[in-house]
């Protein structure tokens, strides 16, 4: 398990104990020093003896270890998101290097996936392509997990652009099958609706209205409460986009614009810009297609 030694060091220093006090009668001071720096491993018996001397239960230690890992993942995600939003390639590279160093020091599946997520977000910013080896690790992992937690939802959401549309749709079907379980955890349910919205947009961009409407139906039939205004808005906007792409009339175009204007009225500038760019893309593509058709008559 990762970071056990570091966490023992953390508890020891917080309790004001020296390495000599903690190690006496359990292991040598030198061995404890190496263990705290993750340079060596110790037996389970010695580890449990250290916990007993620290007056830390195994459950308390496990919780602290999980929190420590979540804090790292949260910090990495916040920093890479900020870099991508600001199109700051230098900052993004620094985050990537930090994730690479962390993986070298703490080998493990989740740290590997976190690094892949960082690389996928950088590829999205730079319009690049994620290496096939990373794409395979990512897809294999997501397909192997039966019940997605917050980690898998974030991973899928931030790497969606690096996967093929076929893979995205296959994973989205898995996600749709778990939507009732996600509903039990409010934060996960909100994230699931956001991910399904993005899947609808990806399929509309690929001119696959049938699949887009399939995932729209999943969103509509989910248990979105009246108080969940942001999620209800996404469903209505996805519906408006599907209507326009299915029948690009002036009425449907105006409906999309009215929906997006709501974001401007409530002061959500970033969302207004993002949704407006999506609308411009669909409207522009439709008009180009119409002109091409007219030219071929």
Would you write up a description of this structure?
The chain is mostly helical and 297 residues long. It has three domains: 3-69, 434 Repressor (Amino-terminal Domain); 72-163; 177-296, Serine Threonine Protein Phosphatase 5, Tetratricopeptide repeat. 78% of the residues lie in helices and 0% in strands. The protein has 16 helices and no strands. The chain has helices spanning 4-14, 19-23, 29-36, 44-54, 58-85, 89-105, 109-126, 132-144, 150-159, 165-177, 179-183, 186-205, 209-220, 229-246, 250-265, 269-296. α10 runs parallel beside α13 and α13 runs antiparallel to α14 (229-246). The model is unreliable at 293-297 (pLDDT under 50).
Low-pLDDT parts are 293-297
Strand content: under 5%
Order of helices and strands: HHHHHHHHHHHHHHHH
Radius of gyration, rounded? 24 Å
* Inertia-based shape: elongated
Pfam families: HTH_3, Rgg_C
GO molecular function, one term: DNA binding
Protein name: XRE family transcriptional regulator
Domain HTH cro/C1-type: 8-61
Distinctive features:
297 residues; mainly alpha; 434 Repressor (Amino-terminal Domain); Serine Threonine Protein Phosphatase 5, Tetratricopeptide repeat; 16 helices; disordered C terminus; Lambda_DNA-bd_dom_sf; Cro/C1-type_HTH; XRE family transcriptional regulator; DNA binding; HTH-type_regulator_Rgg
